[in-house]
Amino acid sequence: MPRSKESARANLENLYRIFTVPEAPDSTLGRIDQAISDNVTGFLQKHIVALENSITDIEKSFDDPKIPEEPTFVSDYTEFIKEKLVAQSVHTAAPGFIGHMTSALPYFMLPLSRIMIALNQNLVKVETSKAFTPMERQVLAMLHRLIYSESDAFYHRWIHDSRYALGAFCSGGTIANITALWAARNQLCSPSGNFRGITNEGFFRAMQHLGCQGLAVLVSRRRHYSLGKAADLLGIGRENLVLVETDDRNRINMAALREQCRRIQDKGIRPLSLIGIAGTTETGNVDPLEEMADLAEEIGCHFHVDAAWGGPTLFSEKYRSLLKGIERADSVTIDAHKQLYVPMGAGMVLFKDPAALSSIEHHAAYIIRHGSKDLGSHTLEGSRPGKAMLVHAGLSIIGRKGYELLIDQGIERARRFAEMVQEHPDFELVTAPELNILTYRYNPASVQEALAHADAETVREVNELLDKMTKRIQKRQREAGKTFVSRTSLTPERYRGQTIIVFRVVLANPLTTEDILASVLEEQCEWARHPEVSPLLDQLQEMTAAA
Amino acid sequence: MPRSKESARANLENLYRIFTVPEAPDSTLGRIDQAISDNVTGFLQKHIVALENSITDIEKSFDDPKIPEEPTFVSDYTEFIKEKLVAQSVHTAAPGFIGHMTSALPYFMLPLSRIMIALNQNLVKVETSKAFTPMERQVLAMLHRLIYSESDAFYHRWIHDSRYALGAFCSGGTIANITALWAARNQLCSPSGNFRGITNEGFFRAMQHLGCQGLAVLVSRRRHYSLGKAADLLGIGRENLVLVETDDRNRINMAALREQCRRIQDKGIRPLSLIGIAGTTETGNVDPLEEMADLAEEIGCHFHVDAAWGGPTLFSEKYRSLLKGIERADSVTIDAHKQLYVPMGAGMVLFKDPAALSSIEHHAAYIIRHGSKDLGSHTLEGSRPGKAMLVHAGLSIIGRKGYELLIDQGIERARRFAEMVQEHPDFELVTAPELNILTYRYNPASVQEALAHADAETVREVNELLDKMTKRIQKRQREAGKTFVSRTSLTPERYRGQTIIVFRVVLANPLTTEDILASVLEEQCEWARHPEVSPLLDQLQEMTAAA
């Protein structure tokens, strides 16, 4: 056989191998795979390097824009991944990682994910998903019932009627929020008379038809950033996402909301939707949903609740009432990759009215044909994996009572942490937890004392220095890799409109103990005394002593 | 200890267990996990029931809308999943499953997916993804270079400059297409003078500013259905997605395109974008991209190429030229879960100009802050998993040459299948493969013969009967579960505007042999003679004998 033909044949054989021959158990990848099966916590602890490399250093391993010409051995590639990717990733499951909305996952999620990936179903159509289609519809019904508690007859009627949908499964809360506002927009601008609807004629003709200058969405200024994207994408415009003042507990101010509704209506702009937040991303507060529902009813607009974070609070008999009024929402967003403990990439939007999603319905000739059971006719996304299976698994294996425990514990742990912050002389609690999120900052007792009596100018200057310190402590703590809190900026009433930087803590990981919480505070005190931060501390003490 | 406290404690302990104790290797779930590791093909073959249950039957296992109160044992749940979900799912990896765009996956994708899921990174921000962030940027650069072949200096300049992005990673091609048109719309309606841009002021004010009646997107009628969604979502309106006639090879008719451009401009509507298709979903054809690029340049609009399917043809030295002109596109969509052989849920959009995505840039206080490296500032989605890792793995392990082999083989296999269809007296090839997709139908030799000479009325009636037969054969073949082709409707020139139903075949699975292809045809012949289909055959023969 000539050389080139021989090598072509060898290439072909190698190619078939990667599709047909599993990794050997004693190969590098096989061993890692086994290690993760045996003990994922141990694997993550062993392989993720705690100490942070600079991102510029890490980038050096990922700076070749050329696709390799020749194949690489799986074992060599796995070594690379182990050293350069896994080692330099973030231990999001660590019980001391309390800065963002990730947590440890239940163990069964890993092998079940493998089944899901091995099956590689595509939920856009029944022909590539079969049983996954009714399963996803069941999951949507379960979450719908958690929110709306309709009758058995209601669910019996709608659960598998493919002309309608109780909601849409999506890759995350952003797509869920966009889908909710998309459906609301299309319902408001639905076909009537000669007007063929915004879906067909577009935004400009819709405004001409309605005789108005634009649409507006009203939400508290604590809203998630996805709503700005939604307003942009849907042609509403970010300026028509009206951000309403909040009270000192970060909940929308109803008087201000009414006032804003009047203001935009005077400008010829039509309120498309009010959005209530059930668990603000930064502070975990819940808007007065009942009052918002009343107002939405009064002015005749859509009422959406962004419960991406807080939705699962409904599992708790004790705390469910915090979300009172959510059952009156026209649509609700819930993220599964947050407090349903499903791996990244799963969210849902539920609609009270099973016909609501008809306003965004679409079809094609080769799939999602009229009358088919294909889920793709009512989703923003097209091809999608069978992630609903993992929600189904969580709901089944953990059960309502299991989730209730997780929720109750999170809220109680957050309250305990708030007490610890308050009991410590050198910390200032900025927002107390309503759900399981709180914010605070390092602020030495003497400075706190001085702040209470200082003039406006000094308060401003002190807060600016404290901001610098908060940023520096947060960064050093993150880089050290033992524990992690995030940071954000808030405008608490006590500082009269001044925006300050705070630590933000999310307590959803059931493995986070009180000892770990104590060590988070301890570490922050240590960083405050570290040579890189302590000059700020000295400055602060000087400034307040002078005042 | 009182009874209730005791049981609460037991519940809590169980809850910790699911977060800390792995499934035992000899548990039901442990055994399935091992079986998939050892031999995924065997697992799928063994557990997926070939014979199709009716969807109504399957629905019975998924019709309880109540979230279970009490936890379920993992082993019981796994049994349920095995019997009711896995057994009733679709064997999308089977070499005889040639009806949709799924294929067998390379083995290494499974253990690597487990690493990805165990790490549970969130790519929206560096704080929850660290090394995954530069890795995703590298993957985007690699695909950008595959399309645009810019210089080393270019990539060195842009690859890790977080103020810009060479593209966006998404959950699939639909989001990719929407992102492309979103960026194009915002660029066309960017801030100027007193106008603060469509992003801020919205669609209505943007049209007033531009002094036009709407925006239009022009694409061939063979476009993917996601573009209708994009037009709806972005406020353009489905009627302003102008569907242009195609030639007999399903490629956009340039004269018709020019004519449509004039027509909409006369109506005061501004062309926002031309869209070229590189691999139409139903027939795998490629638009004349070079000529479209010329026209887009001439009228000064965006040029997007939807290469969700065909993009990886660029790996092939032999067939790359089929996509000539793609390098002049302003944006290009490529799906990774199609011909990059990555599990479901991964797509990309690449932009020629690294500044293009600035038109949709957004920030928040607690993440994606100005100046941060967070990828979330330039994506439609928010929280996202680290799927880019699997693309990185594919590109590294398979290499450019490996993908070239896969592409070349697919195209050549499609040509071979087209020959087989043509050689068989009782089949009619409807669209020949340009890439690796073709369409055909069962059509007995005598009927084909008669069709060639029949009058228009008879042709119409014969085609209607053939449609019924095609639908029935496709359905029976799917239900029998041995092999699978999909179906769609096309309007081939030879039947002068009559829409007919055809079998659609996608040849991307490297394990699909010529024997399997032969058996697909054989099975279709058998179904044609089956008592449920053969009466149609008799009718056909009568009708054509009479004519």
From TrEMBL, chains A, B:
Transmembrane segments: none annotated. Signal peptide: none annotated. GO terms for biological process: carboxylic acid metabolic process. Keywords: Decarboxylase, Lyase, Pyridoxal phosphate. Pfam families: Pyridoxal_deC. The modification N6-(pyridoxal phosphate)lysine is found at K338. One of its GO terms (cellular component) is cytoplasm. Its cofactor is pyridoxal 5'-phosphate. GO terms for molecular function: carboxy-lyase activity; pyridoxal phosphate binding. InterPro entries: Asp_decarboxylase_pyridox, PyrdxlP-dep_de-COase, PyrdxlP-dep_Trfase, PyrdxlP-dep_Trfase_major, PyrdxlP-dep_Trfase_small. NCBIfam families: NOD_PanD_pyr. Belongs to the group II decarboxylase family. This is Glutamate decarboxylase. It comes from Geoalkalibacter subterraneus.
